Amino acid sequence: MYIGRVIGNIVATTKDESLLGRKMLIVEKLNVDLQVEGSSEIAIDTVGAGNGEIVLLTKGSSARIITGKESAVDTAIVAIIDSVEVDK
C-alpha cells in the first residue's frame, strides 16, 4: 500500500466490461512527507475520492480482490486519508 494524491480523472466511453461503472482517477505517488515521488498512474476509485484528495492505494491482486476477481484492475484507491503522522 502507498499514499497518493488525486490529480485528475479519466473518461473512457469504450472499455473492458469489468471496468463499466468504475470511476478511474489519475493519482501521483507521494512519500510520507506528502511530497511527489515517482510517476503518476491510473487507479480505480472504490471510496468516492475527489481531485486533490490524499488517498491510500493498493496494487496487484489486492486491488483485483477489492474490485472483483475477474476485473482488469492493477491499482485501486481504498481509503481517503485525513492525516499522516510520522515520528522521525
Descriptive overview:
The protein is mainly β. It has one domain: EutN/Ccml (OB fold (Dihydrolipoamide Acetyltransferase, E2P), Beta Barrel), CATH 2.40.50.220. Helices cover 8% and strands 44% of the residues. The chain is built from 1 helix and 5 strands; from the N terminus they run ββββαβ. The chain has a 5-stranded mixed beta barrel with strand order 1-2-3-5-4. β2 (23-30) and β3 form a beta hairpin. The longest helix is centred in the C-terminal third of the chain and has 7 residues, at 61-67. The chain is globular and about 45 Å long. The mean pLDDT is 93.
Detail the topology: elements first, then pairings.
Elements: E1 2-10, E2 23-30, E3 36-45, E4 54-59, H1 61-67, E5 75-80
Parallel strand pairs: 3-5
Antiparallel strand pairs: 1-2, 1-4, 2-3, 4-5
Share in β-strands: 35-45%
Can you tell me the number of structural domains? 1
Instruction: Kindly provide the radius of gyration, computed on alpha-carbon positions and rounded to a whole number of angstroms.
Output: 13 Å
For the largest sheet, list the strands in their spatial order: 1-2-3-5-4
SS-derived structural category: mainly beta
The helix tally amounts to 1
**Tertiary shape:** globular
| CATH homologous superfamily descriptor | EutN/Ccml
- What is the architecture at the second tier of CATH? Beta Barrel
CATH class, please? Mainly Beta
Biggest sheet details: 5 strands, mixed, barrel
- Give the proportion of residues in helices: under 10%
Average per-residue pLDDT, rounded, comes to 93
- Secondary-structure element string: EEEEHE
Low-confidence segments, given as residue ranges, are none
The N- to C-terminal Cα distance equals 20 Å
CATH topology: OB fold (Dihydrolipoamide Acetyltransferase, E2P)
Quick one: how many beta strands? 5
Subcellular location: Carboxysome
Keywords: Bacterial microcompartment, Carboxysome
Protein name: Ethanolamine utilization protein EutN
Pfam families: EutN_CcmL
